[in-house]
Design goal:
alpha+beta; five-stranded mixed sheet
Length: 98
């Protein structure tokens, strides 16, 4: 199991983009399963991420939001092998762009 954490910029992204009345559902039903997949299955990182900036972009169709992009990189602050950090999130609440 690899460690995955939400970096401060991604927490700010969530606060700015997800309304308080939808936050709990987004965290539980959308974000959590993706973080679990990244931590438990190497193939999620290796096969599903698209190179983007310093890491990879994951495009996810949401359950409680239209969809979101998760920007993830290897975590330079964590000495454990394979550690990842989410450094950004873009959320579309109602319409996911094509």
């Amino acid at each position: 199991m690899r460690p995955v954490r939400l970096g401060d910029p991604s927490l700010d992204d969530i606060d700015l983009q997800v309304p308080p009345d939808r936050l709990s559902d987004f965290l539980q039903h959308d974000l959590r399963p993706v973080l679990e997949a990244l931590s438990q299955h190497d193939a999620t990182w290796d096969e599903n991420g698209i190179p983007h900036g310093p890491g990879r972009r994951f495009t996810i169709a949401g359950q409680t939001v239209a969809g979101f992009h998760l920007f993830v990189a290897e975590d330079p602050a964590d000495p454990r092998p394979g550690a990842l950090v989410v450094f950004g999130i873009d959320v579309w609440l109602n319409d996911f762009p094509d």
